[in-house]
Amino acid sequence: MMGATKLLGLTCGVIIEEGFERDALDRIQASMRAACREAGVPIVTGDTKVMGRGELDGLVINTAGFALASRVVRDNGLKAGDRLIVTGTVGDHGLAVMAARNKLQLAGDLKSDVAPLFDLVQQVLSAGGEGVVAMKDPTRGGVASALHEMAAKAGVGVLLDERSVPVSDAARAASELLGIDPLHVANEGKALIGVRPEVADRVLAALQAHPLGRDAALIGTVIAEPVGKLVLDTGFGRRLLAEPEGEPLPRIC
Amino acid sequence: MSAPLRTLEFRDPLKAKQLGARLSEVVDQVGREPVSVMHVCGSHEQAIARFGLRSAFPKKLDVVMGPGCPVCITDVPEVDEAVALALQGVRVATYGDMLRVPGTVKSLGDVRGEGAKVEVVYGIDQALELARATPAEELVFFATGFETTAVATASALLHDPPPNFSVLSAHKYIPPVMEIVTEMPGSRIEGFLAAGHAAVITGSNVFEQFVRDHGVPVVVAGFEPLDILAALVRLTELVRDREPKVVNMFPRCVTAEGNRVAQEQLWQVFTPTGGQWRGIAHVPNGNLRLRDDFARFDARRRFTIDVAKLWAYAPPRLLGQCRCGEIMSGSKRPSDCALFGKACVPESPVGACMVSTEGTCRIWHQYGGHLDLRSVS
Amino acid sequence: MCLGVPGRVVSVNGFSAVVDFWGVQKQVLLHLVDEPVGPGDYVLNHVGYAIRKIPSEDIAATLAMYDQLLDAKPEDLMRQDIEGEVGASKGRP
Question: Residue B320: phi, psi to the nearest 5?
């Protein structure tokens, strides 16, 4: 996530384990085709390799995107006083995957938030202009990891208001059942955006006008100290929000 | 409003502030400091940490985390048994909490990474399903947790488990350990918050004898921020008034007698026996072992578990220097331990308090002690 | 030490119930609960078992009990101050 304004293409390298099911491969291919069509970007290069049975677990896909940007927005541009916006509900993807992978047999509205963000980010950049100073996608490790990285790279801290963080009812239910913090699990269709305070409202309004940004919210403020740390205001008190260690696991206690 | 949503009423910050202010008043009225109370429940520590309640506690009140995290107090040899079984090629299922708990040499997570069959389940019913799906393969459920969790194991064994299923019990029983901690030399614990969900099973009456014997008040507490704050107010009132008694502050879930149906199943399947709790002490009647009637489902009697094989490359034993027992009894702080932050860190913990995300040492290590974050803006 | 989550029973089939937790449904076993449970009842769930039927009137009773603790010594000035402070910040939706 770097503020691309014109998408050029995707690379796609595939390594397949010998004997991988043909139907599964077809399904993956169809899904990639649909995703590319939705995002309006072609796969332009790549290579396929086959490895022996047992040398890898099924299939490995590696992609990289390339694009043009009029101004590159990285994840290290925060300074004290900036505001932090998340573009929608957090934790949906990670909790949905965890529920499926651990065969929790949860029925309901829990599903991954996977979505292409190009168009949404365009709206953010045109609304906020130079005031948009940092962006990052909170994938593995969730919002907690992404904000730690953003804070460490910029030499600042973050004060996060827990009750402003949007969480869907289904994700909240799963997080209570499993004892896992929605801030610690992966998202696949969300962005964290750091903005100068004077453009915060404008960027937020632009996001909320977009179908993928309806639940966008201001969730925190950049602070000078403590550097590299997240201070979480729970409404009851404050604590540091740690980075998750390894893959979150369902708890009994 | 539906009941699950109504539990959110117990997360009302306004009431929390009021209760916090009241707690300060009562602690002041005790007239000395610190007033030390202990909770014996990992979920209490989890809730205290998660909601940032520690920053709302009065400075004169020391809320000590006791031996209430079943993950922390699962002893090294018990983890070794599960690891050894997995290394012997037996499929082992367990709760997610246990995956990273270190044995003498390895954790279940380590051996899973090396190809052993280790499954993480949400509940024992899921482990039973795994066993039923592959009837030709043995499946051992590494069962941990206090009586709240043990009743689920008991019930599963009473309701027609498949023949290829067995249990490696590391279940523990809380009431006896409160006596141990109270009697530890140097203990300055003046009152206990009892674990609400365990008391759902045992009932609050189970603590009456303890209070009579030790003259220390016990308050049964729930797990929402207001539950914890209200219970602390009541507990410090009892300390102030020198009134050792049992008070149930979690009546929406806990009764005096507890859950009889669950108790019957628990004691039909398990019998209490003495056992070591990691970093604390040998606790008489603190472990739950399968009764002889259920020997065929007891992994310890079903398999020859070759634990000694694991120890061939064991690192030097550091446990002798571990101060977890004193930290949990409230007489020492993590910074008093020579291992803390050096030989004992979250990635390679030595003692119980560093193992779990709820452990005192772990929280100190992660948060640099009790940071005061009120002024940050 | 034990994660307990309250939910509302949707349907019961023998010793198995479907329970709703904030819109997510999960199967929960009823072997351990000491009272008859039917659709609409609330139960406390731990590792896939209901361990307690929660009478919904008890929730109101508990909240009233907490208020009583506060009423032991009402300090209206302080309360107003707190209310002002909390009113300024946004509540949970």
Answer: -60, -30
Contact between chains at C51 and B197 (C-beta distance less than 8 A)? yes
Q: Which residues of chain C have a CB within 8 Å of the CB of A104?
A: 26
Classify residue B285 by burial, with Cβ atoms within 10 Å: 0-12, 13-18, 19+. middle
- Chain C residues whose CB is inside 8 A of the A235 CB are 89, 92
Assign domain A83-240 one CATH number from 3.30.450.80, 3.40.50.2000, 3.30.70.1230, 3.90.650.10: 3.90.650.10
Q: What's the total number of domains in chain C?
A: 2
Taking CA–CA distances from A248, the nearest residue in chain B reads B96
Q: Is B197 on the interface with A (CB under 8 A)?
A: no
Report the number of distinct structural domains present in chain B. 2
Q: Tell me the chain B residues in contact with residue C92 when contact means C-beta distances shorter than 8 Å.
A: 8, 11
How large is the ipTM? Answer: 0.84
Would residue C91 count as lying in a domain? no
Cβ neighbours for A117, distance < 8 A, ≥ 6 positions apart: A1, A87, A137, A189, A190, A191, A212
The tens-digit pLDDT sequence of chain A (253 residues) is 777 778 899 999 999 999 999 999 999 999 999 989 988 899 999 999 999 988 888 999 999 989 888 888 999 999 999 999 999 999 999 999 888 876 677 777 788 888 888 889 989 999 999 999 999 999 989 999 999 999 999 999 999 999 999 999 889 888 888 888 899 999 999 999 999 999 999 999 999 999 999 999 999 999 998 999 999 999 888 888 888 877 777 777 6
Q: Supply the range of the domain harboring residue C34.
A: 5-54
- For chain B, how are helix, strand and coil distributed in percent, rounded to 5? 50, 20, 35
The CATH class for the domain spanning A6-68 reads alpha beta
**Out of A179, A236, A249, whose CB is closest to B52?**
A236
